[in-house]
Design brief:
The structure holds three protein chains of three kinds. Chain A is an all-alpha fold. Helices cover 73% and strands 2% of the residues of chain A. Chain A is built from 27 helices and two strands. In chain A, a hairpin with a 2-residue loop joins β1 (65-72) and β2. The longest helix of chain A is centred in the last third of the chain and has 48 residues, at 547-594. Chain A is elongated, with a radius of gyration of 30 Å. Chain B is elongated and about 55 Å long. In chain B, α1 packs antiparallel against α2 (31-55) and α2 runs antiparallel to α3 (61-92). The longest helix of chain B is centred in the last third of the chain and has 32 residues, at 61-92. By secondary structure, chain C is mainly α. Chain C folds into two domains: 1-86, Four Helix Bundle (Hemerythrin (Met), subunit A) (Up-down Bundle), CATH 1.20.120; 133-170. Chain C contains six helices and no strands. Chain C has helices spanning 4-31, 35-55, 59-83, 98-119, 135-144, 147-167. The longest helix of chain C is centred in the N-terminal third of the chain and has 28 residues, at 4-31. Chain C starts with a helix and ends in an 8-residue tail after the last helix. Classes of the chains: A mainly alpha, B mainly alpha, C mainly alpha. Chains in contact: A-B, A-C, B-C. The interface between B and C is large, with 76 and 91 residues.
């Protein structure tokens, strides 16, 4: 598979082409980007079959392509690709979803004047994401990581005419930056300990026990900080809800399916490092658990459909993280892939709603959409069922695997949290469904909505299909082929699913759906009364647990305070005292010395004689 | 004979005259007075030359000849100096060297 | 003039007397308020110095000193004073530090030079001859060994003469 490098490169070429001449191409050059991604998908499929025959584990696999990039003394960085089951899985997911969503965008973004730039950046993003996934050394990984962040910034702020979009883009970039710093330092710590940026070399040294335990933990935790930023783990999750300012396809692609999963991928890729440190695994587990339930709770009070989905994404990412923390790469990756499908589906559905109502996405203003947009409604419901883990849908199998991992690992708290969160997930998703799609329309826009055009509707159907089917790959009923493909270390006899776990998780999902039905659909007085009874709690959650204001306070006082101090220091000390001061010193000394030039000859004569006398004395003393 | 006069004494006399002349150059304000002090210094130098040529030098004429040249040049110098002072006087109506500070900053 | 012991003492005594008067006259030349008095003092000092030359057996030079220095140069200086006499009273010095610094500098110089003069062994065991040099010998040396400097000296005088005339010309409107 040595032509793997073509996959990202084709998309890069698409980006360059679109950025420069995209304006003149028909349809904004969407074709270019679509073809590039489709080609990438084709190559990925080929690679998949190529790899299946080899039966290699995650993180073992040929590194077929290495090019010397930088050679400086003892340090030399090679560009390389790693093709193993982990990267192939990600390749397939990223290319497929990128393709589907770009297809959808052709219809969704049709009237946008800058559409060529949209496709250009999406192509660049795809390329960067693929590069990240294929990287076998940490430098390339980091570069792709940053590039992905950049594209996210560009796309969130795509409609930069809106101040809220600009702010959201900035917020995303700054928040992930905090994580990125951690990642960079982690990479450097590893480099210092191992002398190499190559992932396989690092793992060799790891198994040989050449890296001290403290360093392993430190590096792992630091890299996890990067994952926290990108994957929106608590407390660095604050950028994801605001990132909904970007166009809906962007939300679907980047903030549901691909970019935010980069953090999960990172931990999965570096899994041997994490597995070697109990402390690091505990950190991942804890943060993932907290994130899962925190985001689910915040989703309960959101009225903006996209924001609900954003919190849902954060919560599901928490699931994936604690799956990794509990020790199962298989479970996390299965959920990652499945989640990509149904979350993208949900976002695209929300986008269809937005498109049809010309921008309304507040569920309080919608209602009764089921009658006018049947395709959208039913695909949305399928996605929601999958997300909630309703039995036999895709999400059910992957969520089950995650909960089993927690259960078998003895992490009771995590297991309990996972179950509760599953119930909450079902509840808030169906709250949205019952409010928006059922009942009576509550605004004019909702009444006059029209069905989405085919190019928008077809991707929804395709994704719905996968939302049902994909998860079966992880089902033990068919021999868990996914687990056979993506596993950690070596073939393990994958644990038998405990029947209790299955029952409990199904019960949680169904309970949540029923609760939502009773509150919102059957109009039990419960809804309004709950809200008024828990008024304080409701406000607390609606204000996102005051995290945003907390961060703002921190920035205003700490960051800005530091910045002000540095500015004053720079002005007063460096400039005034240092530079101006040196100049002033020269000037003043010159002024002083000028007084000696009196113009009076007798002064000069006196000085001459004094000089002679001094010289004579010096000679006398020297020789005498 | 004059062996009774030690050379050191003669040189000391010359030094004294030179020093007095030096003081005059540095402290007088009238330009002509400065010229006069310079003449005094040159005289002291002459004494030195003569003394050394007589006492120490194998050829006693050298010092005297040098002294002749010194006198010659001193005379020329006084003439020129006075010419300059005259011009200054014509321009500024006084020859106080305190006023000649045009080369000041 | 010299008669053995008494002659020696006589010459030495005369030397010291003349030196003393010369020094006093020099002080007068430098310190006198009235410049004409100063100029006359200077002439007096030069005459004393001529005497010193005599005692040191440099007859010709003593005469030259009298003629040129005391005569021409002194008169020249007095003429200069006459031409630049403002008649106004002398004002105080601009720089009050001038006198003390000059004094200190001159004294320092004298001390250093005096120290050098006294502490160095000039004679190095050579007994001075000190016979009188007849002017003929001097003239011989001057026009033979020292012919080139002699010619150059005459050139210097020429240049000085021309320069003096040029510098002291009045500016006329025809220039």
């Amino acid at each position: 598979m040595s032509i793997a490098w073509l996959i990202p490169l084709i998309s890069v070429a698409a980006f360059v082409l679109l950025a420069f001449v995209g304006k003149r191409l028909p349809g904004g050059g969407a074709i270019v980007s679509l073809v590039a991604v489709a080609a990438g998908f084709g190559l990925a499929v080929y690679g998949f079959f190529d790899l299946r025959a080899a039966d290699v584990a995650v993180n073992e696999g040929p590194g077929p392509f290495a090019v010397d990039f930088v050679s400086a003394g003892d340090l030399s960085i090679h560009l390389g690709m790693v093709i193993d089951s982990l990267s192939i899985t990600m390749l397939l997911v990223v290319t497929f979803l990128s393709f589907i969503i770009q297809l959808y965008s052709v219809g969704y973004m049709r009237s946008d004047p800058r559409i060529h730039w949209f496709f250009a950046v999406v192509a660049l993003f795809t390329a960067a994401m693929l590069g990240l996934v294929l990287a076998n050394n940490l430098i390339i990984l980091y570069v792709s990581w940053e590039l992905v962040g950049l594209c996210s910034y560009l796309l969130i702020g795509y409609w930069w005419e809106r101040p809220s979009a600009r702010e959201a883009a900035k917020k995303a970039f700054v928040t992930t930056r905090i994580g990125d710093v951690g990642l960079l330092i982690g990479i450097l710590v590893l480099f210092k300990a191992t002398g190499s940026f190559e992932i396989d070399q690092i793992f060799e040294m790891l198994t040989a026990g050449e890296i001290p335990a403290g360093t392993i933990t430190l590096a792992a935790v630091l890299m996890f900080l990067g994952a926290m930023g990108k994957s929106g783990q608590f407390p660095l999750h604050v950028w994801l809800p605001d990132a909904m300012e970007g166009p809906t396809p962007v939300s679907a692609l980047i903030h549901a399916a691909t970019m935010v999963t980069a953090g999960v991928y990172l931990v999965a890729r570096m899994f041997p490092l994490f597995a070697a440190s109990e402390a690091a695994m505990l950190v991942v587990l804890t943060i993932g658990t907290i994130t899962a339930i925190f985001a689910a709770v915040l989703a309960l009070v959101e009225t903006d459909m996209k924001r609900v989905l954003a919190y849902s994404t954060i919560s599901q990412l928490g699931y994936m993280m604690f799956a990794l923390g509990a020790g199962s790469v298989t479970a996390a990756m299965l959920h990652l892939a499945g989640h990509a499908f149904f979350k993208a589906l949900l976002f695209l559905g929300a986008g269809a709603v937005m498109h049809g109502t010309h921008g309304i996405v507040d569920i309080d203003k919608l209602g009764g959409l089921r009658k006018k947009m049947p395709v959208t409604t039913w695909t949305f419901i399928i996605g929601a069922l999958s997300l909630a883990g309703f039995p036999l849908f895709s999400g059910f199998w992957s969520k089950d695997m995650i909960l089993s991992t927690a259960y078998d690992g003895g992490h009771w708290v995590t297991f309990a949290v996972g179950v509760v969160t599953a119930a909450l997930t079902a509840f808030y998703m169906f709250r949205v469904i019952f409010r928006a799609f059922f009942g009576e329309a509550r605004s004019d826009e909702a009444r006059n909505i029209h069905q989405a055009e085919p190019i928008v509707a077809i991707p929804l159907v395709v994704l719905a299909f996968f939302a049902i089917v994909f998860g079966w790959l992880g089902s033990p009923l068919v021999g868990a082929p996914f687990g056979a493909f993506v596993f950690t270390g070596h073939h393990t006899a994958e644990h038998g699913e405990s029947i209790w776990v299955v029952l409990i998780s199904s019960a949680a999902a169904i309970l949540g759906i029923l609760a939502a039905y009773s509150v919102y659909q059957a109009q039990n007085p419960g809804a309004a009364s709950i809200r008024s009874a828990a008024g304080g709690l409701h406000t607390f959650l609606a204000k996102r647990a005051y995290m945003d204001s907390g961060y703002q306070w921190l920035i205003d006082n700490v960051s800005m305070g530091l910045a002000r101090f540095v500015a004053v220091f720079d002005r007063k000390v460096v400039n005034d005292a240092g530079i101006d001061g040196a100049g002033a010193a020269v000037r003043l000394s010159g002024k002083g010395l000028r007084r000696g030039v009196t113009g009076l000859l007798y002064n000069y004569a006196a000085l001459m004689v004094v000089g002679i006398v001094v010289l004579a004395v010096a000679v006398l003393l020297g020789s005498g | 004979m004059i062996e009774a006069i030690p050379l050191d004494h003669v040189v000391l006399v010359a030094t004294a005259l030179f020093g007095i002349g030096l003081y005059g150059v540095l402290s007088r304000r009238n330009a002509v007075a400065i010229l006069m002090a310079i003449e005094l210094m040159l005289n002291a130098v002459n004494i030195n030359f003569i003394a050394f040529s007589m006492y120490v030098s194998p050829d006693p004429t050298v010092g005297q000849i040098i002294a002749i040249f010194v006198i010659t040049v001193a005379a020329a110098e006084v003439a020129l100096g006075l010419a300059i002072v005259l011009q200054i006087f014509r321009n500024k109506s006084n020859i106080n060297v305190d006023d000649l500070d045009l080369l000041r900053w | 003039m010299e008669r053995e012991i008494e002659g020696m003492n006589f010459a030495a005594a005369l030397f010291y007397i003349l030196s003393g008067i010369a020094i006093v006259a020099a002080l007068g030349a430098v310190l006198a308020r009235n410049i004409v008095y100063a100029a006359l003092s200077l002439v007096g000092a030069m005459v004393m110095i001529a005497g010193i030359f005599f005692i040191l057996h440099a007859d010709f030079l003593a005469l030259v000193q009298l003629l040129i220095y005391a005569g021409a140069v002194g008169v020249l200086l007095i003429f200069g004073l006459m031409l630049t006499n403002t008649g106004r009273p002398v004002t105080g010095p601009k720089d009050l530090w001038q006198r003390p610094i000059a004094f200190v500098t001159a004294v320092a110089f004298m001390l250093v030079a005096g120290y050098v003069a006294v502490s160095t062994d000039w004679m190095q065991g050579v007994v001075p001859q000190l016979e009188r040099v007849p002017p003929a010998v001097l003239a011989n040396s001057l026009f033979r060994n020292w012919a080139l400097p002699f010619e150059i000296a005459s050139l210097v005088l020429l240049v000085a003469m021309i320069g003096t005339i040029v510098i002291s010309r009045r500016e006329t409107s025809s220039d």
